[in-house]
Amino acid sequence: QLQLVESGGGLAQPGGSLRLSCAASGFTLDHYAIGWFRQAPGKGYEGVSCISMTDGSTDYADSIKGRFTISRDNAKNTVYLQMNSLKQEDTAVYYCAAGRGITLRYYEYEYWGQGTQVTVSS
Asked: What is the pLDDT of residues 21-77, one digit of tens each?
């Protein structure tokens, strides 16, 4: 069974950090692109970052550029999103997804995790 599982969400203070993980089971991520997306209450999906598991190329949304870093560990079949300098507007449910190309367009992705809540509040 193909599955993506996010972890690492929680409560952080403004200016704080969290690291999200996206672990795959039932398939290898080696030939996929993995994207991180978020959905704030009452809003649609926003592409945050993505990475190619093949060559490590990345892309970032302007809203998080310089604060978030995406990375991969092919041996662990896992992708990470390091989030620093968090802001209240980063509060959302964060999802990882697997697709075939580097893009921040959520509809291009085939497999999705269940999401993890990130709340930034003092």
From this structure: 999 999 999 999 999 999 999 999 999 999 999 999 999 999 999 999 999 999 999
**Gap between the terminal Cα atoms of the chain:** 40
> Using one digit for the tens of pLDDT, what is the confidence trace for 74-121?
999 999 999 999 999 999 999 999 999 999 999 999 999 999 999 999
Strands (DSSP E) contained in 53-99 are 58-60, 68-73, 78-83, 92-99
Are the C-beta atoms of 40 and 33 separated by less than 8 Å? no
Q: Which of 33, 25, 26, 24 is nearest to 53 (CA)?
A: 33
Residue 51 in tokens:
């990475």
Backbone phi and psi for residue 89, each to the nearest 5 degrees, phi listed first:
-70, -5
With beta carbons less than 8 A apart as the criterion, state whether 105 and 33 touch. Answer: no
**CB atoms near residue 35 (< 10 Å):** 29
Q: Please list, in sequence order, all residues whose beta carbon lies within 8 angstroms of the beta carbon of residue 102, skipping any fewer than 6 positions away.
A: 33, 50, 51, 52, 57, 58, 59
